[in-house]
Amino acid sequence: MQVINVILYVIVIGFLIYWVGTWAYYLYKGKQMGGAISNEEFESTMRKAQIVDLREKNSFDAKHILGARNLPYSQLKYNEGELRPDLPVYLYDDRKSVSVRAASKLKKWGFEDVKWLDGRFSDWEGKTKKTTKL
């Protein structure tokens, strides 16, 4: 019985180390890329950018930033051709780490001006839209 407990502890500790390590890596990566912008800056400059909502479709339909397009992070690699690399890209999600991961991918694909909302979409105070279904 003690062997099973030790194995379970090792698995739990390993998972926690992985989770904290991943969080710390993306925190560092985000600071290194320097693309986090405040709600105010996002809203004042978003008319010149491609706004991308990285959440899944049902969350996007419930409420999204006015003018945003839905490219879920899980589908980003299949839809990156929908974005123009010569225009700024503004990203947002419910978790900043998802936006940082997406920004990192876009940078690897040749996008130079990639920014993300510093914080969560739930903190957004600007104009939003709901997609109504008939």
SSE map:
Elements: H1 2-33, E1 36-37, H2 39-45, E2 50-53, H3 57-62, E3 64-65, E4 69-70, H4 76-79, E5 89-92, H5 96-108, E6 114-117, E7 128-129
Parallel strand pairs: 1-6, 2-4, 2-5, 5-6
Antiparallel strand pairs: 3-7
Helix pairs in contact: 1-5
Structure overview:
The structure is a single chain. This protein is α/β, with parallel strands linked by helices and 134 residues long. The protein has two domains: 1-33; 35-129, Oxidized Rhodanese, domain 1 (3-Layer(aba) Sandwich), CATH 3.40.250. 46% of the residues lie in helices and 15% in strands. Helix 1 (2-33) packs across helix 5 (96-108). The longest helix has 32 residues, at 2-33. The model has no long low-confidence stretch (mean pLDDT 89).
Strand order of the largest sheet: 1-6-5-2-4
Beta-strand percentage? 5-15%
Unreliable stretches: none
Identify the CATH class of the largest domain: Alpha Beta
Using only C-alpha atoms, the radius of gyration works out to 18 Å
How would you state the average pLDDT, rounded? 89
Count of helix runs: 5
The CATH architecture of the largest domain is: 3-Layer(aba) Sandwich
Describe what is shown at a glance.
Helix content is 46%, strand content 15%. It is α/β, with parallel strands linked by helices.
Keywords:
single chain, alpha/beta, Oxidized Rhodanese, domain 1, two-stranded antiparallel ribbon, elongated
